[in-house]
Amino acid sequence: MTMTSSAPETATDGTAVPALELAGIDLHYGFVRALESVDFRVMPGEVVGLLGDNGAGKSTLLKVMSGAHRPSAGEIRVHGVTHTFQAPSDATTAGVQMVYQDLALVDAQDISTNLNLGREVLRRGPLGWLGFVDHKAMRRRSEAELDRLGVRTAPMTRPVAMLSGGQRQVVALARGAIRVNGEDRGILLLDEPTAALGYEQTRQVEALIRRMADQGIAIVLVTHNLPLCRDVADRYVVLNRGRKVADLPVAGTDPDHVVGWITGARPSMFPEADGAA
């Protein structure tokens, strides 16, 4: 169950409200501190690259955002409204959609069916009452939605098992974008979307990420691919041992500095917070 409290879409000073905001997030497993006082925000239409070495807390923070983990302390706000996510379904209802590294596609089903999982179109009349699906209507809707995203892929009737790695990734990203691309622009969480792709397939995914952001979707991108992050992200957020150590625009930032924050060779931008901890 998700618990909400009313909040305005714009702040009282006229500034825009983040699509997703985390404040003071802690997550402890017994004596192990996975996350410590992490603040994070992503604006509508912004791509934020969430970076860090293995064990830095990236995946854990992503799971907090998606409702898979409940934080020990802190607040989660979606478009200014405070939420308590008890499960991933609560995050989905709030407009937060996760695209996992394994894509969660049904290989035996075609593209249209995968795009419509959980929101199938039933046939009219008695057949619909019995649960029969209108595949033609779903294909038409899928084609219209992909056209809006500017996506060109295989025919809607092709099974996912017959797609290339890049095509599979595009289908998974498009499904996430379709689910959050309603009137209240949603938030898309991407976990290593190009980890197993070649150069051309990676470029295709990069272009789709930017198109989704241009449509107002807020995107959080977890990746080890710094060139990808530099090409598509607007801002870097770097974690190191569960703490946020850097938060700054991609434009004008020295990539060597980013590597330094990831490895711990460069001091945190927030020494006061480290000292307080």
From TrEMBL:
The keyword Thylakoid does not apply. Residues 20-266 form the ABC transporter domain. Keywords: ATP-binding, Nucleotide-binding. InterPro entries: AAA+_ATPase, ABC_carbohydrate_import_ATPase, ABC_transporter-like_ATP-bd, ABC_transporter-like_CS, P-loop_NTPase. One of its GO terms (molecular function) is ATP binding. Gene3D superfamilies: P-loop containing nucleotide triphosphate hydrolases. Signal peptide: none annotated. The keyword Methyltransferase does not apply. PANTHER family: CARBOHYDRATE TRANSPORT ATP-BINDING PROTEIN MG119-RELATED, SUGAR ABC TRANSPORTER ATP-BINDING PROTEIN. This is ATP-binding cassette domain-containing protein. It comes from Nocardioides fonticola. The lineage of its organism: Bacteria, Bacillati, Actinomycetota, Actinomycetes, Propionibacteriales.
